Amino acid sequence: MTGSTALLTDRYELTMIDAALADGTAHRESLFEAFARRLPDGRRYGIVAGTGRFLEALSRFRFGDAELEFLRAEQVVRPATLDWLADFRFSGDIWGYPEGEAYFPGSPLLSVHASFAEGVVLETLILSILNADSSVASAAARMVSVALGRPIAEMGSRRTNEDAAVAAARAAHIAGFAATSNLEAGRVWGIPTMGTAAHAFTLLHDSEADAFRAQLRAAGPGTTLLIDTYDIAEGVRTAVEVAGTGLGAVRIDSGDLPTVVQAVREQLDRLGAVRTKITVTSDLDEYLIAALSGSPVDSFGVGTSVVTGSGAPAAGMVYKLVARKDDAGDWVSVAKSSAAKASVGGRKSAARRLDSTRTAREELVFIGDGPGGEAEFEADGTLRPLSVPFVTAGEIDGSFLGADGVRLARKRNAAAMEELPVEAFRLGRGEAAIPTTYRG
Amino acid sequence: MTGSTALLTDRYELTMIDAALADGTAHRESLFEAFARRLPDGRRYGIVAGTGRFLEALSRFRFGDAELEFLRAEQVVRPATLDWLADFRFSGDIWGYPEGEAYFPGSPLLSVHASFAEGVVLETLILSILNADSSVASAAARMVSVALGRPIAEMGSRRTNEDAAVAAARAAHIAGFAATSNLEAGRVWGIPTMGTAAHAFTLLHDSEADAFRAQLRAAGPGTTLLIDTYDIAEGVRTAVEVAGTGLGAVRIDSGDLPTVVQAVREQLDRLGAVRTKITVTSDLDEYLIAALSGSPVDSFGVGTSVVTGSGAPAAGMVYKLVARKDDAGDWVSVAKSSAAKASVGGRKSAARRLDSTRTAREELVFIGDGPGGEAEFEADGTLRPLSVPFVTAGEIDGSFLGADGVRLARKRNAAAMEELPVEAFRLGRGEAAIPTTYRG
């Protein structure tokens, strides 16, 4: 968590600042907004993740010697702009949806109020983090919702960039995954880590029984034995023979899962290992987990599909200049022509309308105000405010950072999921579960 | 490029070492291999990328105080294993396909010959990097092949994790992309960076003409003006009026591209801006680039589709223990039963058979030898060896590292693409362009 994040940025952010500093427009007070015009791929809802990581990255968004030297050598910007960058400290306000919250098309996920230069320079970093992390969290939430309370572990590190893997473990945990295989995610974000052995461990040994004995000696009988390296029925028999009926769990990583799981459960019970659990980890996604809803599976491990967003590897969020002041100091709402219908200018906050059963019915976006702006519209107890301040006059709210931030986000997600209408949990393609309405 | 990479690792790699140290099998001489059982998604070939990044990460694969303290506190492994980890320095051999090379199902992309413990501990890191980077390179190569020599810039940083973005820019450049928008990729890997302005820059100004004037003042007439914020024809007219006929380029980011590009070209020519180039950047992928093959486009910018592997966000590589010694010191080929048909045990090297036109016809995998092992099989001038040593007795070959490694990989890719048969360049789904044959 050290090192500058300032060059994790598209070159054009800096050349825009370069030109805007020259004509004075760089200092125009501006409002940028990150939002998704639509949900990916027929999804019913999305889950916000990455905001806490962005805030940590913001605290390291500094143009140091190495960064400035590169920009100078490459003549990316003029010398006067290098001075501006060297002094850069974000001094504006940022507010939006906290991590773990559900979102819908148009939900104002992150609003940045600052000078044009201060707002535009953050664009790439904000979108990289929100798009990647929300993609994982949105996929993870669907998997959790069909796992019917059985825990899911994230084990997809090998299927995504090595640093993205740490962030993916974090996003999946926020969206309800119980644990991760990724050790760095455990160290940095406080996520429980899991994992015992791969097929290579069995193959290393002269026999499956030797491998099981070695694992049990090191890890104790509560461990999980991988029983499908050779023949599954033989593997189960050997596992119970070597470990005894107190064996913690067996893992199945192949085969026609509903059939195999049922057979393994029956075999374990016959052998007296009635409390030995079954975990499955075979290229699962939300559809395969749902297909195991009637099977005696105790926990799941998910890899590729969760870290790649299960078909939607980028959440599709954009970061747009929605309003800026003119030379007279008046706000001007702005939008490019092709986006006119989909963009709504102005300072926004949002609230979710709940019915009497506390089920979400509408996403309300209030125009003209920042966080708390919905208060003046109604004092209705069923309106749950969504927008919270993250950064005020450059000061980052520390409660969103670190492992504590992740814990809070995970709780927030559980509460947000409780509110979603039942239609949200259909796996098939469809429309957003609730409509988004603009007010003000 | 600082910091330990040791915990970018699945927990089970360490628990396997823990158990194997206890029973002595951790020291069994072993051979691991990274390969793809199949190509993703109907692809005809893949492009290897990430090896150089892995070698850099390997040099930082050290369990320091922070890593060891976490493992101790979480009781991931026993104290004796912590000592082994503290002393860990990879001391084995690694060889395989250098970056930029084409690959096919079964191509032995990375072979690791070391003790079981030293080989298994690298699994997660190797796969994270190779899967992610090769996914991007494989998608990028398809785009380059249909761009018919017109340069493509990578601009997808905002659509993938912020660190993955830097690696993606690198992988795309190896596979023939000319430049990237990502500044850190420019700084660290020496890739040319590009980009001028977004719609926000136009919207910041009181008029499109004001915005163009500001950009031209800062960047000079050779710049690229984004002309589709409002009306495209009006944007082109204003651009030439403000910049003159020496304007470098215009960028189009929306609309029905074949129609719009043709109209813009005609308008530019009518206005006398006959040398002003046209670049397009509107959610392109290999299919849309191919659809513009007859259009007067001078360059392309590609975002989401390249950084997410254009439908195949993970290359599907696995890392398997293929052979290990027994206590008598004899090699034993190993494979789990379900993989028996797809895995081939033993030390491997590979060569590509070329016909008299230097077109690739067969991927030959030689079993029983390391790099150079194919030499004993034939001295045929049309057999191009593919396997090269990366690490010898723990010593990393520096020629694969840094910006120089990227430059060489890019050249190697251009040569490898020249050899592919014409069938490889069909965009439609199909089989691997050449068959893989095992020998020995």
Structure notes:
2 copies of one chain form a homodimer. The model of chain A has no long low-confidence stretch (mean pLDDT 94). In chain A, helix 11 (232-243) links the parallel strand 8 (224-226) and strand 9 (249-252). By secondary structure, the first copy, chain A, is α/β, with parallel strands linked by helices. The relative contact order of chain A is 0.17. Chain A has a 7-stranded antiparallel sheet. Chain A has a 6-stranded parallel sheet with strand order 7-6-11-10-9-8. Chain A contains 15 helices and 19 strands. Helices cover 36% and strands 19% of the residues of chain A. The longest helix of chain A is centred in the first third of the chain and has 24 residues, at 123-146. The first copy, chain A, has 2 domains: 11-137 and 312-424, nicotinate phosphoribosyltransferase; 147-307, TIM Barrel (Alpha-Beta Barrel). Chains A, B: Pathway: Cofactor biosynthesis; NAD(+) biosynthesis; nicotinate D-ribonucleotide from nicotinate: step 1/1. Chains A, B: Keywords: Glycosyltransferase, Ligase, Phosphoprotein, Pyridine nucleotide biosynthesis, Transferase.
The unreliable regions of chain A are: none
Q: Give the largest interface pair and sizes.
A: A-B, 104 and 104 residues
The global form of chain A is elongated
Termini gap of chain A: 41 Å
How would you name the oligomeric state of the polypeptide chains in this document? homodimer
- State the name of the first-level CATH class of the largest domain in chain A: Alpha Beta
CATH topology of the largest domain in chain A: nicotinate phosphoribosyltransferase
Mean pLDDT of chain A: 94
Helical content of chain A stands at: 25-40%
Quantity of strands of chain A, as a count: 19
Tally of discrete structural domains of chain A: 2
Q: Rg of chain A, please?
A: 25 Å
Query: If helices are DSSP runs of H or I spanning 4 or more residues, what is the number of helices of chain A?
Result: 15
Largest sheet of chain A: 7 strands, antiparallel
What is the name of the CATH superfamily of the largest domain in chain A?
Answer: nicotinate phosphoribosyltransferase
What is the architecture of the largest domain in chain A at the second tier of CATH?
Alpha-Beta Barrel
Strand order across the largest sheet of chain A: 13-12-1-5-3-17-18
- Structural class of chain A, by secondary structure, is alpha/beta
